[in-house]
Amino acid sequence: MLSRSIILTMNNLVQELIDARNNVIEAVEKTSKSNRAKAFVGEWTLKDMLAHLTGWAKYQVEAIDAISKGQIPPEPGNIDGFNKKSTEERAKIVWDKIYAEFVESSQKLVDAYKGVRDKDWGKLLWKNKKTTLEKFIKIEIRHYKE
Asked: What's residue 7's pLDDT?
């Protein structure tokens, strides 16, 4: 059984993800239509960034679901390839749908993390790797904050 301090830390991480997500939504809503199409992270536009976050949110929800069932989630593979696929799959989708998909998938991600059992936070997701759900949520928080 996890200690109370570890459980509080996990709850704090979930709250940090909620806060970071809310900040992204607020910033997106303040961004003018003309600025949405401008590259701001390398070659990525705001639409590309939301597509990227959506791809990872959907993947993590699947991983959390697998862990909750005692299964090993599929590995995402090459990170750059995963990112490219997430953005390319959504390249022809209109802004409003991309944004709605982000809002929905990121809320599902928050809900999935809220439902993680205490015993599952520290489980290794894959053999021979040191990735846990705790590490995943910290990466996601960093993505949202950046």
From this structure: 53
